[in-house]
Every structure is written in C-alpha cells, then in structure tokens.
# Entry
Amino acid sequence: MDYRQTSDSLVIRCLPFEQLDTNTLYDLLSLRMSVFCVEQNCPYQDADGKDQNAWHVLAYRQGELVGTARVLTPGVSYTDACSIGRVANRIDQRGRKVGQQVMQRAVRECETLFPDFPIRIGAQRYLTNFYRQFGFEVSSSAFLEDGIVHVSMEKPALSVVR
# Structure
C-alpha cells in the first residue's frame, strides 16, 4: 500500500488482515520484530496465528510505516473481551505521539466494531500509565510473559459506559 504524503503528519489506516498486501504485511512484521525481538531482546514467536483474525492499525509518516497495533475480535485472545496488542512504533518516532495516536485509533476501532465488549490488554507493567490515559485500569497482579513483567488491563465496554 502506498501512503505517500508530502507533509510530516501521520496517516493512520485500519485494515483487516485479508486487505493487507504482502509489502504492508512485511513492513508490519519487520517493525514488530525490530521493537519486540531486537530492541527488547526478547525472542518469542510473533506469528501466533492471531493476525489473520485481526484488524491492523497502521501509522504512516511520509510513506513509511512508523507505528502499528492489532485489534483482536472477542474470542481470539479472550472469550469475553476484544483486545489490542502488538502496539509498536519505530524508535526514531518516539516522543512524537505516534503510540498515542495508534492507541486512540485502536480503541476507537474496538468501540466501533465491538461496543458490547470490554477491551482487555496484556500490558508491559512499565507502560500502565500510558494505557491509563485511554481509560484502561489494571485488572491483575503482575505476571511474566516472555521474560517481561506484564499486567492485565481492561477498559469497560462502550455500551456499559453510555
């Protein structure tokens, strides 16, 4: 997909897996691997079989993928909740609000697609304040996932909040 633009602004798209072309899929897997496996020195199986049942949030700046997240339907990670995961942005984009804009879009997609379900995430513990700004609250004690301390966090269903 070609999302060239002349300005420095962010262009954010959200697409189901079957609408990703091979270059876009390569770019998002490459970005996730560079953040989660290389930067965080955490070898893990990124291809977990969930991407095919996900909507993918893709953030572009000047035609390059700089941020991503995936929105998972209820029943994929949790039977009673939808989920957001694999939130990542390029290291050279940190401090430019890419993560905030990607999360805002991912939350909006969850609330649009699945308004009757809460949103549950497994967050790296040091990022709990980041996720709180989107309405998430810690809902578990700390646990290790792939050698990194995580907590479960949840945002109530939009239909409950109304």
In short: The radius of gyration is 15 Å.
